[in-house]
Protein 1
Amino acid sequence: MEIIRPLDIITQSKGKEILVEMKNGKQYKGKLVASDVHPNMVLEEVTELDTNKKLPWIFLRGDNISLIKPPE
Amino acid sequence: MEIIRPLDIITQSKGKEILVEMKNGKQYKGKLVASDVHPNMVLEEVTELDTNKKLPWIFLRGDNISLIKPPE
Amino acid sequence: MEIIRPLDIITQSKGKEILVEMKNGKQYKGKLVASDVHPNMVLEEVTELDTNKKLPWIFLRGDNISLIKPPE
Amino acid sequence: MEIIRPLDIITQSKGKEILVEMKNGKQYKGKLVASDVHPNMVLEEVTELDTNKKLPWIFLRGDNISLIKPPE
Amino acid sequence: MEIIRPLDIITQSKGKEILVEMKNGKQYKGKLVASDVHPNMVLEEVTELDTNKKLPWIFLRGDNISLIKPPE
Amino acid sequence: MEIIRPLDIITQSKGKEILVEMKNGKQYKGKLVASDVHPNMVLEEVTELDTNKKLPWIFLRGDNISLIKPPE
Amino acid sequence: MEIIRPLDIITQSKGKEILVEMKNGKQYKGKLVASDVHPNMVLEEVTELDTNKKLPWIFLRGDNISLIKPPE
C-alpha cells in the first residue's frame, strides 16, 4: 500500500474490512463504505465487538474515533 | 444506498427510523426529521432506550453524538 | 412543525416550554426566550429538575448542552 | 428584560448579582463587572458557594462555564 | 480597577500576586509576569498550593485554566 | 537529528520504530509510515503493548495522541 | 528573563532543562529542543518522573500539556 498521508490508509481500505476503536474503547468491525477527513466513517456488514451484534451499517463520528486497524 | 460521503447515510435516512448513541452511552430511537454537518439531528416519534419513555421529538447536539445505526 | 434544519426546532420552540439536558445529565425545564447557533439558550419560569428549584431565568451554555426535548 | 440573543441576558446583568455554575459543579455568586462572547466573566464582591469564602473579584473562563442564573 | 473586557483584570494584575485554579483543581499563587488571550500565563515567585512547593516561575496553559482570583 | 520545529522529530522518524502513547494511556510500538500536522499517524509492524498483539498496520488519530518517544 | 508574551518563557528555555506536566498528571523532565505555539514540545535527555525511565527524546503534544516549570 502506497501511504503518503495517514488518511490514505483509510481511503485505500474502502471495500475492505477494518476494525475501528472509539475513544470509549468500544470496537466495531465492518467493511468501509465511506470516510472523510475527520474521519467520519460508514461501515457495512458490521459487528459490534463487545456485544457481538450484527448491523447492516453504522456511522461513526470522526472526533470520537481513537484508532483504526485491520480486523484480528 | 449510494454513499459517497459518510454524511450521505444520514441524509438518506431522512424519514426512516434510526438509532443514535450519544458519547455518554444513552441511545435514542426515532424517525429522522432533519440533520446538518455537525451532525445536529432532530428525531420524531422518539423512544429513549434506557428509560423507554416516548417523546414527540428530540434535538440531539452533533458534537455529543458517538454513532448512528439502524434500529435493532 | 416545518423543520428544515435541526436548529429550526429550537427557534420554533420560542415562547414554548422545553426540557434541556446538559452533558453532566442535569435537566432544566422552562419557556424558551432566546437561542443562537451554539445553541446558547435563555429559559424563563425555570425548574431545575434534580432540585425542583424555581428560577426566574437561566442561561445555558451551548457547548454544554446534550439534547433538547418537549417537557414530560 | 428585552432578550434577543442569549448573551443579552448576561450583558443586561452588568452591575447585578448573578450565580455562575462551572462545568465541575462549583458555583460563584457576585456582581457582574464584565463579560465577553465566550463568555469569560469578571465578578466582584464574590462568594464561593461551596467554601463560603469571600473574594474581592474573580475571573471565570468562558469555556469552563456551564450556566448562569439569578442568585437564590 | 477599570474593567471593560474580562481579560482586562488579568492584564491589570501584571506585577501583582494572583491565584490561578486549573481545571483539575490544582491552585498556583504567584506574581503575574505575562498573559495572552487564551489566557496562557507566566507567574514568578510561585507557590504550588497543594504541595506548598516554591518555584521561580511557571507557565500555565490557558485552555487548562478554570479561574483566576486574588490570593487569599 | 536537526530539530527546528517539534513535528520535525516525527517526520525524521519515518521508517524508524517509535512508541506512541494515547490519551487513554494505551501504547503502540511500530515503524512510522506516515504522519501529518495533527499528528495523525500510520505505523506498520505494530505491537499493542498492553495486549502484546501484533498488527500489520494501525491509524492513530492525532488529537487522541499524548506523546511519542523512541521504543524502550 | 525578558518575558513579554507567555510563550517567550518556553522559547527562552531552549537548551535548558524544564519540567512538563501533562493533563493526566504525568511529568517529564528534559532539555528543551524545540517548541511551537500549541506548545508541542520536543525534549531530549528525558526522565519520565513517575517511572524514572530515561529516554533519548520525547514529543509532547501541546493540547495535552497543563503546565511547564523549572526542574525541582
Protein 2
Amino acid sequence: MSRLADIYPADRVTLREVGLRDGLQLAQALPSTEAKRAWLAAEAAAGVRHFEVGSFLPAARFPQFADIDAMIAACDAAGAHSAALTLNERGIEAALASPVDELVCVVSATEAHSQANMRRSRAAAVALVARAVAERDARAPGKLVNAGIAMALGCSLSGDVAQDEVLALAEACLAAGADIVGLADTVGYAGPAAVGALCARMTALCGPRPYIIHLHDTRGMGVANAAAALDNGARVVDASLGGLGGCPFAPGATGNVVFEDIVFLAESLGHPTGIDLGGLRAARAIAEAAMPGEAFHGALHRAGPPANAHWRA
Amino acid sequence: MSRLADIYPADRVTLREVGLRDGLQLAQALPSTEAKRAWLAAEAAAGVRHFEVGSFLPAARFPQFADIDAMIAACDAAGAHSAALTLNERGIEAALASPVDELVCVVSATEAHSQANMRRSRAAAVALVARAVAERDARAPGKLVNAGIAMALGCSLSGDVAQDEVLALAEACLAAGADIVGLADTVGYAGPAAVGALCARMTALCGPRPYIIHLHDTRGMGVANAAAALDNGARVVDASLGGLGGCPFAPGATGNVVFEDIVFLAESLGHPTGIDLGGLRAARAIAEAAMPGEAFHGALHRAGPPANAHWRA
C-alpha cells in the first residue's frame, strides 16, 4: 500500500479533478487540446494534484478523449497524478501501454445498470478489475487500479440500492486487488444521511485504506453530501471545476459537485487542501472561455472567501 | 408558549419563505403586487405555511414593500402565517396596526454592524425588541415577536463573531420577551462545522422553544449548513424560492438558501415538510416570469426528485 499512501495519503483530504473526464462526457462545445492543457496547468498551479484526464475509448465515437495521450503528458508535465477510465479490455490495454498513473475501472451497483450501461454482469465487471490488476502487476506495477462503483447511492434504472450490496461489491473489488474503490452517486439521488451512513460503513470496511466519494449535484445536495462524507471518514473527494458534467439520465441537471465550493467546505471543516482559490478562479476563466456554451456552477467563485474572517477551521 | 407552539411546532421542521422580503430587497425588476400574490398563493397551495411578506419601511424609498398590506392580506387569504420586518419604532407601530401575524426585529451580532446598519447599539436594538414585546402585549397579544440576529456567523465589518456573544444576545432577546430568535448567516461566511456548533449551543439554550436558522448560499454552503443545523436541533429554516436574495455586501453573490433544495434535504433527513415539489415548481414559474432580470438558483427544480426511488427517509 506504500505507493497508494504516497498518492492518496490516509491522513489528509485529497480532491480529484474529474472535469476533464466526467465534465466533458456530455459537453456541447468541446474545448481544444490546447485549452484543456492550459486549464490543467492552471489548476495544477493552484495546487490540484489529481486529475482524471479522459477515458480510453474509440476516438471516432468519443472525440473529447481523442487527445488523451496529450492530456496524460500535460498532467505529467505539471507534476500531477493522472487517471483515466478503462471501461473494457481494450481500454485496459491502452492504459497499460500509456504513461497514465491510474486506471479507473467501473462497476455498477445494480445488475440492471451494469447490463444496460456496460453489457456485462456485475460479476464480470469485478472480474475485469481482477484482470486489470493482474496485467498491471505483470506489466506496469507502478500504476494504481481504481474501481469506481456507479449508482452506489441510487440507480436511474433500479431505484433504491441496498448499502449491503454496495459494500459487498466494494469488498469484492478490493479482493480483486483494486488499490482504491470509489462510491459514486452517479445520478445525485442521495441526501447527506444516506451518504454519511454509507461512508461510515465504507470507512469501517477499508480501515486505513482510503476510498473515493464521487458526488453529483443533480438535486443540490452535493456540498452537503461531501460534508457528510468527510464527517464519516471519506478522505478522497471527486469534484469538477465549475461543477461541469451533466448527467445523461437527468437532462439539464447540474453536474459534478463544484470543485471550488468543495475546497471551501473542506478547509472550513479543518481539512487543509493545499489548493489556492485565486488560482482556481484563473483556471475557471480558461475553462469558461474554452467552453462558451457550457453552464458553470457554484457560488464560492463569485463571492470569494471571506476577506476579513478566519474561514479555515 | 402555546401560540408559538401552534405556529412553530417544536417537534417538526418548519420552512419559512423569505423570498418576498429578503428576495426583493435587492431585486432589479420588482414584481407587481398581482404577481407577488400569485406567487404566494401558489407556494401556499404547495404547502408552505410561513411567509415573510415584506418590511415596514417608507414606501417612497422601498417601493418593493409599498404593497405590504396587500401581501399580508394575501397571506391571510391563503391561510398562511405572515411575518414582516420592523426595523424601527415606526415599523413596530405600523405592524401592530396591521393584521400581520409576526413582527421581525433585527439585532446585529456585532457592535460595528449594528451601528453601521441601524445606527444604534446592540443594547438599543435589544431594547427595541423589549418595546415591541410590551406594545404587542398591550395592543395585539395574538402576534408573535421574532428577534433575528444578523451576522451571527461572521460579519462583513467585524469578521469573526464569537459564538459566546451570539448566544448572549439570543438570551438577551429571549429575556426581552421575544417569542422566537433567529440566527442569520447574513453574508454566508460559515461552513457546516460552525453552523452545527452554534445550533447545538442554541438548542441547549432554547430547550423546547424553537429558533430559526437563516442561511445565505453566498459560498455554496447553504444546503450543507442547513443539514448541520437540522442535525443539531434547529427546526425552523428560512429559505427562498429559487434562492432569491442577493447580498449588499457581496455583489453578484447567490442569495438565500434555495427553498426547493431545502425541501428535498429536510425530507431526505426524515423531516416531513408537507410541501409538494411540483407545486413549488409552479410557484417558481410565476416568480421567474415576474422577475425576468433576476437569477434563480438551485438544482432540484431541474431534475425533480428521483422518480423511481425512496428519497424521503
Protein 3
Amino acid sequence: MRQSKTLIPTLKETPADADATSHKWLLRAGYIRQNFSGVYSFLPLGKKVLDKIEAIIREEMDAIGANEMLMPALQSADLWKETERWDAMGDELIRLKDRHNRDFVLGPTHEEIATSLIRDEVKSYKQLPLTIYQIQTKYRDERRPRFGLLRGREFIMKDAYSFHATDESLDERYQQMYQAYTRIFNRLGLNFRSVIADAGAMGGKDTHEFMALAEIGEDTIAYSSESDYAANIEMAEVLDTYQFSTEEQKELAKVDTPNQKTMQEVADFLEHDLDQGMKSLLFKADDQYVLVVTRGDHEVNEIKLKHHLHANDVELVDEDKTFELMNVGFGSIGPIGVAEDIKVICDYAVKSMANATCGANEEGVHYINVNPTRDLHDTEYADLRFVSEGDPSPDGKGVIKFAKGIEIGQVFKLGRFYAEKLAANYLNQQGKAETLTMGCYGIGVSRTLAAIVEQYHDDRGITWPVHLAPYQVHLLVLNNKPEQRELAEEIYQQLTDAGFDVLFDDRNERAGVKFADSDLIGIPYRITVGKKASEGIVEFKVRQTNEQDECHQGELVDYLNEVLN
Amino acid sequence: MRQSKTLIPTLKETPADADATSHKWLLRAGYIRQNFSGVYSFLPLGKKVLDKIEAIIREEMDAIGANEMLMPALQSADLWKETERWDAMGDELIRLKDRHNRDFVLGPTHEEIATSLIRDEVKSYKQLPLTIYQIQTKYRDERRPRFGLLRGREFIMKDAYSFHATDESLDERYQQMYQAYTRIFNRLGLNFRSVIADAGAMGGKDTHEFMALAEIGEDTIAYSSESDYAANIEMAEVLDTYQFSTEEQKELAKVDTPNQKTMQEVADFLEHDLDQGMKSLLFKADDQYVLVVTRGDHEVNEIKLKHHLHANDVELVDEDKTFELMNVGFGSIGPIGVAEDIKVICDYAVKSMANATCGANEEGVHYINVNPTRDLHDTEYADLRFVSEGDPSPDGKGVIKFAKGIEIGQVFKLGRFYAEKLAANYLNQQGKAETLTMGCYGIGVSRTLAAIVEQYHDDRGITWPVHLAPYQVHLLVLNNKPEQRELAEEIYQQLTDAGFDVLFDDRNERAGVKFADSDLIGIPYRITVGKKASEGIVEFKVRQTNEQDECHQGELVDYLNEVLN
C-alpha cells in the first residue's frame, strides 16, 4: 500500500487526553481515533492489526471445535428481565426503546441470547456438548471510560458459550478452553498470567482470568516467586501458617484511649506497633451482623468474607448503625463482650497474637493484653484478609509478589444459573428433562490490541511482534531524486510480487518526518532507499532491535524470507 | 466439521412468519434464527456464507485501493444535528441516551462519522483522493421489518466513502466503484441490473442502484427489451415521441357530468376510453401551487415533478384545500381557466391528445373536445409520468419491460452536501481552503446473502453456487453398520487432509432425514456412504443438477479437484 493513498494520521505531540501508554502510541501512530468518550474508530492500520489478532483467536477456537456464529448487538429486554440482569447491571447496561416503545438493550455479553437459542434449538443429550462463539461488538456504559481501548463503551469481544449435559463435560471443555486461551495469548506474544478469579454473583464455580502484565493494569495479581501460582488479589488465599508468640501472656486490662479513633492513633497512643492492634469492623452479611477482626496491619477482603459466610451480599455497617447496635462508635468496638446476635469471626492471623489491643465496646476505652485463644470465646477463625507481598504462596512454593495486570480474557464455569432462569433443558438418555450446564469464555479483542502495545513499545513508538504488525515491511524513499524514486518503485514492485505486505512511504515529505513516522508505526522491517540508490544499495533496519545494515536490492527477497520465516 | 458437533437446526415445516422465499429456506436449513422482529442471529452455516460474501467484497474493494477501517455503531447525536439528519431520519433513526443523558444514535450509515474524521485528519490536496470502507453492523428502526434478512432492523453493510478535491476525481472513483460492484455481484453469481436511481434529498448527483432480480423485490426496474438500459421506475425517462392525431378538431363544449368523480366514471358516462380523458391533480411544490395534467391512463411521477420544478418537497393538495383554491372539488378541476397564481404543467402525452375531456372547474361539469395546443395557454409540457411497459426505451433501443428487484448496492455521488454541513475543507495547491467533494458506496451484505438464496433454490432447499456454499462437500453415512461407518470416517479424513471443506453427517439419524437435511442445506457436492460401502463404492451427487453417479473411494479426491477447480 502506498502511504499517499491511505490514512495514517500520525501526530507529533501526545494528545492531552491520552491517559495510557497504549492510548498515546495508538493515537500518535494513527491506528485509532476517538469519536467520543470511550468510543473509537479503528483507522486502516488499527483494523489490520485487529484482523491479525482475530485470525489467531479464530484458528484456536476452530481447532477445539467451537462453532463461529454471529448474534445481534440489539437484544430484547425480556430475556434480561428473565435473568434479572436488567436490574443487576444498573447504569452500565445501555437501554433503548424502539418506535413502538419496546425496551431493548445493547448487549454487554450474550449469555441470554446464546442460552435462549440453545434452549429453543437443542433438544437432546445427543446434540451435546456444543460450543458456539462469535467475535462481535459489545456495549457497556462505563461510568468513566478511560485508557483508550482498555476501558471503552463500544468494544470488540470474542465470546464463547459451551452447553453440556454433565459437569464432567463442562470440566473437560473448560480445560480445553483454558489451553486454547494459553495458546492464543502466547501466539500474541503477551507476557501474561492466568489467575484464579472470583466467580462473582452469577452462581458460577471455577473461573480464571488471563492478565497481561502492565503497569496501567487495574487489577492486582498475587503470584508466587517460585511457582506458577497466580490469583487475582481478591482471591489469593492466605495460609494459616502463623507462629504463636513465645511472649508471656499478661493480664487483660482496660485503658482509657480518649479520642483515639484509628488503628494508627491507638497504636501511637499506646506506644505499640500497628500489628499489635486488633482491627474490628462490623458488617452486615445478608441479614446477619458480623464483627470481623483482623490484625491492625491487615485489610479485610470482603470477597473472602462473603464466600466464608456463603452470603449474597456483604456491606460495612455505617457508624450510626454501629452505635445503635453496639452502643459505641467505630473507634472503640471490639470482639470481647459482644451481644449474642452479632457473630464474631477473626482472621487466622489474630489467633496467634499475644498481648494485643482491641476496642472495649466503651467509648474511648480499649483492652490491652488481649490473648485471643484465652480471651475470645465462640469465635471462628478463617482466611479473611487480603494477601500481602511476602506472604507464603498458598501452594507452599516461594512467597507472594504483586504485579499489575490488564484482564484480557476469562474462562468461567457458569453452571446452571442462566439455564435455570431461562428454562433451558435437554432430554437425557431416559427421555427426562434436565437443566443444561454452561461455560462462558471471553476475550477482549480490542483491549488485547492495546495490551500488546502496552508491552511492545519504546520511546519512539510501537514495536510490533512480526506476525501482528499491520505490514511486514516499511519501504521509505528519502527524496525525489529520480534514481531514488525509481529504485524504490522497483523494490516496491519486487517485494509485492514476492508476496510481502509492504507499506511504501512514497509521500513528498522530509526524511526526518518519514523516519519519525516509521518509528511511530512500528513495522518490524524497514528498507530505506537513500544516497546509495544509484548503486542499488539500501538500508535495512529492524525496528525492535535497531540493528541496521546495508543491503543490495538483489538480496532483499532472500533476506526477508529468512527473517520472516 | 462433524454435524453432531455443530448447530444446524433444520426444520421440517415452514415457520408461519417466513414471508419470503429466502427467509423460508434460511430458517428451514438452519442458517439463521430470528431473535425478535427484524433482528437475526447467523448460525454457523449462515456465518460461513457471510464470510465468503465479505471476502469477495473485501478483495474487490482492496483491489481498487479502498482502505478498510472500522467505525463505531454508537454515534454522537451532535454530528447528526449538524447535518440535520437527526430530524430528517424521523422514527427510522434509533436514538438512545447514555448515563449522563447525552443523545446518541445507532448509525444507519456513516457519512457523518466518515466526513468528520476526514475533516479532522486530512488537511491537504496532497492527501486526496482517499477512499475508506468498512463492513459493519447498521441499525434502522423499520416501521415494518419483514422478509427476513431483506428488511431488518440490525443488518450488515459494506459502506465506503471517497473524498476528493475535484469533481473529475469523484467521477473517476465513481466509475471504479461501479466496475468493482459489477465484479462483486458477478462473482456472487447474481442475476442483477444496475439501474439509474434517484439522488434524493441529500443534494447528490449521479447514483446507480444494483438490483438483484427477484419476485419479492420491493423495487420495480424498468429495463429495455433490447439494450442494457435499466432504471428504477421512479427515474425511467419517457420520451416525447407521441404522434398527433389526424382526427378533426371539434368545437370545445361544456357538458354536465353530475356526480361523476373519477376518471373512469367520467369516461364511462361520456362513453369514451380512459386515455381520452385528461387527469388534473393539484400539487403544492414548496410554496407554489401547480396543476399537473396527464392522460387519464397515466400516473404522475412525483419525483419527476420535483426534479422538473427543482422543488425540495412536492405533495398532493387535499380536497378541502383544492376547493378553497379553485372553488371546485377533485372531480371537476381542469387546466382551462385556472387562476394566474396556479401554474399548469402537462405531461408530454397530453400535447397530442385530440377532442379530449377535462374538468371545467365547475362542480359536475366537464369540457369535451379539448385540443390542448388550441385550448390550453401558458402551459408547459414535460416528462411527468411513470413509464409503462411497452413504452419506447429512452435510449431508443427496444421497449420498456418491468422486473422486480432487491436493492443490494448503491453508488452515489454525494457531492459537497455533507462536507458543507460539517465544514470539511482541504487546502488546495494555492493554500486556499476548499470544500471536499464526496462519494458514498453501499452494499447490503446480509441482504445480499438473502438475495442469493432468492435466486438459488429449488423446491427442496438452497442450491448454493460452489464458492459461496458453507462447505464444499456434504458427506453422509446412511447407517451404523461398521463397514459404512469405517468407510465414511476414512473418507472424511482423506478429504479433510486433501484440503476440502467437508460437513460430515455423522449423526445417528434415518437416511431420509439426512437426505432431506442435505437438500435443505444445499452444499454443492454430496457423497453418500451406503450399501456398497464394503466395495469402497459411494454415491456422488451434484445438488444443483441432481446428476448422480457411483464413485470409488480412491477416485474421490481427483474427481472433487476436477469439479471444484
Protein 4
Amino acid sequence: MAECEAKERKILVGVDEGEASMYALSWCLNNILVSQNSKDTLVLCYAKPPRPVSTAIDGAGRRELRGYMCSPNIIATMDKYANELVEFVMEKAKRLLKEFHNLDVRVEKIVESGDPKDVICHAAEKLDVDMVVLGSHGYGLMKRAFVGSVSNHCAQKAKCPVLIVKMPKSTCPSK
Amino acid sequence: MAECEAKERKILVGVDEGEASMYALSWCLNNILVSQNSKDTLVLCYAKPPRPVSTAIDGAGRRELRGYMCSPNIIATMDKYANELVEFVMEKAKRLLKEFHNLDVRVEKIVESGDPKDVICHAAEKLDVDMVVLGSHGYGLMKRAFVGSVSNHCAQKAKCPVLIVKMPKSTCPSK
C-alpha cells in the first residue's frame, strides 16, 4: 500500500533569469528529487515575454488588433534578446544540475511565450506533472509586471501540488 | 557541495478534520519524507477553533471585550468537542503514518487555539521548520470561515517553502 517504492514522477520547475527560481530549483533538487531512484523527470519551464501588441478602434468602432507596435527591426532585436535569455537561463540551470551529478534525473525543457503563470499552468496540465515548483521572489527582469501573481495563481489553478520556495533573506539579491 | 546527504529536516503539516489535510499528509509522506534517511521530523500542527467572544460599547463609549458570549456550560461543551476533534484528527494521522511503517520519522504534535493560518505560520517560525505542507480544500468543519485563505496566507507569510497539495478531483469528498 503505502510503501516507499520509487515512482516515475514528473516535476516542473519554473525557471527565469532571477535568482529565486534557481534557488527553488536547487531546493527541489536537494529535497524532492534527491529522494527517488532515478525515475524522476525534471521539466524546466521558461516563459518568454510575449511580443508587445496594440489595439485600436477601427472605422466601424470595433476594437481590432493592430499587431506589433514596434518596427520589425526592434521586434527582431527583442526576439534575439529573448532567445539569449532562454539560453542564459537554461545554461544556469544546467550548471546547477551538474552540482547534483549523483542524481540521475531526466531533464526536459519547455519554452513558451506568454505570461509565466499561464505558461506554467498550461505546461503543468499538458505534461500532467506531479508537482510544480516555483520561486517566490519576482519573476525575472522582463516579467516584473507579473510579480507576486505567478505563485498565487499557480497555487490556485494548477491541478497538482504546488511548492512555493522562498529565498531566505540572507540569500536574497539586493533590490 | 550539492551531495545527496541525509539532512535533519523538520516538516510541518497542517492537519484538520478534513480529508484534504490527510491527503496532503499522505502526499508528503510519499514524496517528501520517503526521501531521506530517518533524520526527518514530522510536525503535525492542528489549530483549535478560538472561543467565541463578543465586544460591546461601555458607558464611556469605549469598545470593551465582554468575554465569552456563551454560558460556561456551552463553553465547556465546546471545549470538550474541540478536544475530541483534536483526538480524532491525531488518531487519523497516526493511522495514516502506520501505513508508512518503513519510514522512521520522528513525529511531534502541536495544538494551538486560533485561526489556522496564524497558528501554522507561528508554529512554522517558532519551530524553524524547513517546509510547510498544506491541503487546499477547505480547512475543516469548524473553520469554514477561513477557507481558501490559509494556504494563500501561509504561502505569502511563512519564511520557509510552502507546499500546497490539492486533492485530485476523483478523491475529493462530495460537498
